[in-house]
Amino acid sequence: MKKLRIWLLFAVSLCVVSATAQSNDIVANIQNDAVSNYLNSVVYTSEDDTSLVADFIVPKNVRLDVPKPAIVEVPNYYKEFINSGIVSVRYCFDNSFAPEVTDTVAVPVGEPGAPIYDVQPGVECYYKTYLYNMMIGWGKLMTEGPVRMINLSTVRNVRDLGGWTTADGRTIKYGKLIRGGELNGEHIADAADIQHLLDLGVAAEIDLRSYYEVDHGVSAFGFKDASQVTGDEIPTFFYANDSGQLLSHLTMTKYLQHWRQEFEFIVDNLSEGRTVFFHCRWGANRTGYLALLLEGLLGVTYDGLIKDYELTSFASLDEKKENIDPVIQFIRQLDGETLQEKFNTFWIERVKVKQEDIDYFIDEMLDGEKPGGDVVTAIKDVQESPVSTTYDLQGRRVSAHQRGLVIRRQQDGSIRKMVKSY
Fold first, then answer.
1. Closest of 235, 200, 233, 231 to residue 219, by C-alpha
2. What are 361-412's pLDDT values in tens digits?
């Protein structure tokens, strides 16, 4: 009788679905409650403030370094079939629902809907709900952050650098840089988690571990390092062989050189449209230092710098502002009017990276143009040029041997921003 009833419902629902052309749009915040409470309740203004993150790491018996899922609920009319295990949700980002770009999540028995993880905040996702192969609901899904933790079962402390706001009002883009713990070595990621990172766009990896750690210098993704590429191909794997994690490292040539190599690797791979995953063993100290130096260069506020560093504590790792404040105090002593300018001085004078690479990095990583910038002028100059040509962001013609962020006019008359790496 139950099967007969299902088929009768199928016939009836065909009429109901065809007659109802209303989508059910969903907006969901993907931060777990502990992280949201911390971010919304704490404001750090200076090194004199005491860390408060430990007050928000509750409950203690669950993972707090993973996001909340967005829940696509089953329409009320069909909820009685949830316990039969035949209800599922299919979702994709281009509204084609082609098999190769569509993921399917079963509605767990006893739950009101299907959990959807890791939809990038601000990006529309399309979904359809099915009973067997009968569509019983559809709509759009949009998630909010700003912190985008990544849901991996065998890897801890993985999150997108996107979402943080800068002092001049811009926002770090999602999907450019992802930080986390190791995928091989002492902690081994399963194939599903590695594939999930690939599905999120990860196409380059920086290994910040040291020579004495298990599986150091081996890409869990199988990416190529400089010894494995040919011609003009840009390597997709870089082994730092111990990246900086102490205050003293800010003045040691070895670690400054490693940060320069890491930065240049990031710039090169961003210019190829690749998402970069960087990690040490735990995704804490070495990973946290690199994240801090990059975020400071992008103009993230003091409050944001500290909070991103302290979020590692939600992965059962003791990372508090007192650990990183001496680094910021060191940076504050350098030349510059703003904290971002002082980070810029560190990267230019201490790490020895090029200003044009910094300009490219900032432009590539942030939504919105820098107030008072010259990008609009450069674009106008390129658009008015009658021939294929290249300008820097000050609207100056660029010769072939120069490196940095440029705007190029293509043969077909279109323009695009790119980095020249000659």
1. 235
2. 999 999 876 665 555 566 666 666 666 666 666 666 665 545 566 676 665 6
Contact 274/204 with Cβ under 8 angstroms? yes
Summarize pLDDT for 274-317 with one digit per residue, the tens.
Answer: 999 999 999 999 999 999 999 999 999 999 999 999 999 999 88
In the chain, % helix, strand, coil (3-state, to 5) comes to 35, 20, 45
Closest CA to 238 of 199, 281, 206, 263: 206
Q: State CA 394 to chain mean position distance.
A: 29
Give the span between the Cα atoms of 259 and 340, in whole angstroms: 17
| CA-only gyration radius of the chain, Å | 24
Q: State the angle between helix axes of 302-310 and 285-298 in degrees (0 to 180), rounded to the nearest 10.
A: 160
Look at the pTM and tell me if it is higher than 0.90.
no
Could you give the CA distance from residue 345 to residue 358 in angstroms, rounded to a whole number? 11
